[in-house]
Amino acid sequence: MMSEAPLRVVQLGCGIFSREGQGPAWKEMIRQGRVTMVVCWSRSEESAREMCAYYDEVQGSIKVEAIWGEETWMGLLQREDIDAVTILLPIHLLARYSKAALEAGKHVLSEKPIAGNMEEARSMVEFYQARRKEHPSQLYCIAENYRFEYAFRRSMQLLGEGTLLGRPFMVELTAHVPHLLGSKYEKTQWRREAKHLGGIITDSSVHFMAGLRLLMNSEVECLSSFTSKHAAHLPKVDTLVASLRFCNGTSGSAAITFAATSRLFEYRVRCERGILMMIRG
């Protein structure tokens, strides 16, 4: 029986997270023979070549091609030696690049969130839903990782009818996450410019809200919130306090700030027969 051919991937974007976040996973899949990294593209030659060298450590004789420059990425999407695209770019660019890759017939893994504003986000959802009708095997995934983490998957097994804790009816999220001046991600230029809606709140809180939806096993039906800005070095709002109602009739709250100087991060789920607490370091 012949083994399945490796997925041929192009990476668009070679910043910090491409190496520290997705990079180790891609490396492991290369080692397993499941993926061949074909091209690393960046706006700068230096970062493209550095990323290629990173994958060349494990890819052996098949060297990764470095391509750079604002005018070169669209041509990559037309290449027949590429099956899939992973997109690690500033938030305000994600929807544009994802749509172009999907239109070129590639599978797409895009960093979160789906887009830089609500209009683009809704447009992308509608576009992909329509495209799936004609191309049902084409995949488009947003790289939100909480849904795959053991802590959340195990927690979901403990919640609900017939489980140890029983049906959850209320959830509280407290997330005090320092985003200090000069820290690794804060000093990224595109985060300082923050051309996307909501600044750091949108950038990181997409994870926190995904966690709430997982734990309550429901989408959010209604949300009311206040936002404010307290850290002088952050370009947009950095604090959010929200009340939520879920489609299954449960409710919750979220208190999130990136202006804190110390970390506190926990979920509390109140259930029929007890409480589940998840504390993240």
TrEMBL record:
<dbReference type="GO" id="GO:0005737">
    <property type="term" value="C:cytoplasm"/>
</dbReference>
<dbReference type="Pfam" id="PF01408">
    <property type="entry name" value="GFO_IDH_MocA"/>
</dbReference>
<feature type="domain" description="Gfo/Idh/MocA-like oxidoreductase N-terminal">
    <location>
        <begin position="8"/>
        <end position="130"/>
    </location>
</feature>
<dbReference type="GO" id="GO:0000166">
    <property type="term" value="F:nucleotide binding"/>
</dbReference>
<dbReference type="Pfam" id="PF22725">
    <property type="entry name" value="GFO_IDH_MocA_C3"/>
</dbReference>
<comment type="similarity">
    <text>Belongs to the Gfo/Idh/MocA family.</text>
</comment>
<feature type="domain" description="GFO/IDH/MocA-like oxidoreductase">
    <location>
        <begin position="157"/>
        <end position="276"/>
    </location>
</feature>
<dbReference type="InterPro" id="IPR036291">
    <property type="entry name" value="NAD(P)-bd_dom_sf"/>
</dbReference>
<dbReference type="InterPro" id="IPR055170">
    <property type="entry name" value="GFO_IDH_MocA-like_dom"/>
</dbReference>
<protein>
    <recommendedName>
        <fullName>Gfo/Idh/MocA-like oxidoreductase N-terminal domain-containing protein</fullName>
    </recommendedName>
</protein>
<dbReference type="InterPro" id="IPR000683">
    <property type="entry name" value="Gfo/Idh/MocA-like_OxRdtase_N"/>
</dbReference>
<dbReference type="GO" id="GO:0006740">
    <property type="term" value="P:NADPH regeneration"/>
</dbReference>
<dbReference type="GO" id="GO:0016491">
    <property type="term" value="F:oxidoreductase activity"/>
</dbReference>
